[in-house]
Write a structure and sequence with these properties.
Radius of gyration: 27 Å
Largest sheet: 8 strands, mixed
Number of helices: 20
Structural class: alpha/beta
Helix content: 25-40%
Length: about 525
């Protein structure tokens, strides 16, 4: 067939298609894009290109636009959605485009996000949301709030089914803040991202409170004070690099196991046999232990700036993903407090949801005392960690390094909460309390009346520690499966994980538990 009328019609249609495609790729005005870049921020398409493997992105709904009666509405309606791969594994993604309507959420915008969440749920792949929007679109009224509700519902129904990761790369205000709060991980970019329910202007009018944007809802505030965020990124590249790394530890969905990589080795470092000081009151750095047990010393920490008295993060042992929870003696002596309990509880439940074994390293003198902790709910909020460990059905391997006192010993992944294998170093002390505290309570009068009180105190403490605190006493009761040399910790944990790899522990039939929220 020659170049007749039909051919000309097809050519015209293809030409129109290419023009539309070009317009959809540059929905924001040149001025808006220049303003975005002047703030050190990339466009939505540029961010997606950084996140996904080169050439893997397939955009959906590129030609969707606001159904307003106003002519020439921009394509995309302020959000880009689609799917691609990260390290050759499928990932769904949406990225709000601040250069179009300020990234605000209206009907078409919300329906696009709803569509990509539904796709991720159907195919069982992680979803990454890049947030950079000024909240609901005022002009669309209740429709915007309705679409937020649809998104929240999907965040909840997908929770524990596929990994959900939020990256905050600009404003995330009002109702929009609740979607990231419902996801598994939140990454914020320093100095350019902000998240709050009520902004500074509204606070000033409604409450008479004067507070700056950075002070109220900056990335640093949410990483170090509120605990709403899990990683403080230096810039957008750092944020996306963290997310790509994070995805490498996670399965695509709760029906799969995390990806397995070639087994690494212990990175060279100080011997663990000489790590713990002679004095029980002298701290040491728990990161040394973490570094010694994970493959090649690679450890992706979660919430490093929040509740630093407990360490949470992901690593690999023999190429398999593990979640690590460890008390940090350098911070508040490793005590459990409200923030540490909630941080660790959330992390333990995330690991359990996605089939990641939990490795616990214990050096805990107890729960942090004080009226402030009591009044703010340490009983209820500390119980969240107890609940999380007891509820978890993934392999649970615990090693007691030094102190394991009182209720905190039980809470930190003990045998009594169905840890599968419990090790202890010879330096471990497992008891209701330490020898010094016990001597002061049980023998106060005896010591005070002695000819040499300090000598008697030392003798009583030594006897108490040998009789009641020794790891061998706990081993006699079967609460410790083995006392091990510190230098053999990685080998023993690796062997325990191998033997527990086919663990199956069905949950009792019920609607759901009632965690003390």
């Amino acid at each position: 067939m020659g170049p007749g009328k039909g051919w000309a019609g097809t050519a015209a249609k293809l030409s129109a298609f290419h023009r539309l495609a070009a317009r959809s790729r540059s929905a924001g005005t040149p001025r808006a894009i220049a303003r975005q870049r002047s703030r050190g921020k990339k466009t939505a398409i540029e961010r997606i290109a950084l996140l996904l493997d080169p050439g893997s992105f397939v955009e959906l709904d590129a030609l969707a636009r606001n159904q307003s009666t106003v002519d020439d509405q921009p394509y995309g309606d302020g959000v880009v959605i689609g799917h691609g791969t990260v390290n050759d594994r499928p990932v769904a993604v949406f990225a709000q485009d601040f250069t179009v309507f300020g990234g605000t959420l209206g009907r078409t915008h919300g329906e696009k996000i709803r569509k990509i969440l539904d796709l991720a749920a159907r195919i069982g792949c992680p979803v990454v949301g890049i947030n950079d929007g000024a909240g609901g679109r005022i002009q669309e009224g209740v429709v915007a709030q309705a679409l937020y509700g649809e998104i929240f519902f999907r965040n909840v129904s997908m929770s524990g089914v596929v990994p959900q990761i939020s990256i905050i790369m600009g404003p995330c205000a009002g109702g929009a803040a609740y979607s990231p709060a419902l996801t598994d991980f939140v990454v914020m970019v320093d100095k350019t991202s902000h998240m709050f329910v009520t902004g500074p202007d509204v606070l000033a009018v409604a409450m008479g409170e004067r507070v700056g944007l950075e002070e109220l809802g900056s990335a640093r505030v949410h990483n170090s004070r509120s605990g709403n965020a899990h990683y403080l990124a230096e810039d957008e590249e750092d944020a996306i690099d963290y997310v790509r790394h994070l995805l490498s530890y996670l399965p695509s969905n709760s029906y799969e196991l995390p990806p397995v990589y070639a087994a690494g080795k212990r990175r060279g470092g100080p011997s663990l046999d000489s790590l713990v000081p002679d004095s029980m009151n002298q701290p040491y750095d728990m990161y040394v232990v973490v570094d010694a047990i994970v493959d090649d010393g690679e450890f992706l920490e979660v919430q490093p700036l929040f509740a630093p008295n407990i360490i949470c993060g992901l690593g690999r042992i023999d190429g398999n993903s593990v979640g690590i929870v460890a008390n940090q003696p350098l911070k508040s002596a490793g005590c459990l407090d409200i923030d540490a309990s909630e941080k660790a509880a959330r992390f333990v439940r995330t690991c359990d949801a996605f089939n990641i074994p939990i490795v616990t390293l214990v050096d805990v003198p107890g729960f942090l005392p004080g009226s402030d902790q009591e009044w703010n709910g340490i009983i209820r909020r500390g119980a969240k960690l107890l609940y999380a460990y007891a509820e978890a059905t993934v392999p649970k391997i615990t090693t007691i390094i030094r102190k394991a006192y009182g209720g905190a010993y039980v809470v930190m992944g003990s045998k009594h909460l169905r840890a599968d294998i419990c090790f202890a170093w010879p330096t471990a002390e497992i008891a209701v309390m330490g020898g010094e505290a016990a001597a002061n309570i049980l023998h106060r009068d005896h010591i005070a009346g002695a000819v040499d009180p300090e000598a008697l105190r030392s003798k009583i403490i030594d006897e108490y520690e040998q009789t009641h605190c020794s790891p061998y006493r706990a081993a006699e009761h079967g609460y410790i499966d083995a006392v091990i040399a510190p230098s053999e910790t990685r080998r023993n944990i690796a062997a325990a994980l191998r033997i527990m790899s086919d663990k199956r522990e069905p949950a009792p039939p019920k609607r759901h538990g009632n965690i003390p929220l």
